[in-house]
Amino acid sequence: MNWENKVVIITGSSKGIGKAMASEIGKLGATVVINARNIDQLKNAQQELEHQGLSKIFTVQGDISIPEDCNSIVDSVLTEYGIIDILINNAGVFADESPLLELSNDTFKKLLDVNLLGAVYMTKAAMPSIIQTNGSILFVGSAAGFHGLGGHSAYSCSKMAITSIAQSLRKELSKTNVHIGLLNVGFTENDEQKTIYNQEGKVIPMPDRGVGKKDSPQNVAKSAIRMIERRKARMTLTFLGKLNSLMSRLAPWLVHIVLNNAYHKNRSN
Ligand SMILES: NC(=O)c1ccc[n+]([C@@H]2O[C@H](COP(=O)([O-])OP(=O)(O)OC[C@H]3O[C@@H](n4cnc5c(N)ncnc54)[C@H](OP(=O)(O)O)[C@@H]3O)[C@@H](O)[C@H]2O)c1
């Protein structure tokens, strides 16, 4: 695949996995559109990518949970380049562990607004151009979307819903040449600047998660590239992610027991 003439939008790319995707895809020669809400962090990311020698970085600030912002992100790209080849719906937010009863409605809504509706609004805005270019729409899902996690009802729900959106679109677009992919990411090293919401919806630094071996954002980015090049429908990353995916289909009762024990053990610590 020749990336040199491709225009790629990556939502939520001022840090973490999105920034790693911008770097890896930029190194292949593509024009990369980076996006986030915080303009200072976005400009820092642009500078960092340009220091890596990437000259085709286009920065568009915008909040994907606002439909008008999504339309204006897409309009800016079309005005500048005329086409969009690839959309990576990466932007996502996470909340600190909290049982549903203690999670504010506002925090629950914030997660769905960004993780689910943001991806929907961006997809709808970019789709007409991507149909013309026979391009790709990649959704960033999560192993948390295979089986509802205790303490993360809103996040699991948003990522399960992303799976369903990807499945529906594959049918709706099956008579076009658009590739729809779902990349289920496992536990990944976090950006030092990563923030999450607490149960009241306040932004707090991401606490350290004592999980085993974590994937690297660069590895996730390379997997996204492989999926797009091979036009793969679904890919699940990390050993635990693959195990969870398999067992959630074969023995959901067993996954319930394991995750239930893990949740209550964590709560009692
Ligand atoms: N890290 C993991 O272990 C892991 C595991 C499974 C799945 N994932 C998924 O992978 C994706 C990236 O995760 P990450 O850990 O790299 O996240 P991150 O480090 O927290 O970065 C999130 C990015 O999204 C942007 N963003 C957040 N809300 C936005 C909005 N409304 N509009 C536009 N941009 C927005 C953030 O910038 P601003 O705040 O400035 O907007 C930032 O650039 C997410 O979809 C996440 O659910 C991550």
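^ NAP complex. The pocket of NAP is lined by residues 11-18, 35-38, 41, 63-65, 90-93, 114, 118, 140, 142, 185, 187-188, 190-191, 194 (CB under 6 Å). Strands lie at 7-10, 31-36, 57-61, 86-89, 136-142, 179-185, 195-197, 203-205, 234-236.
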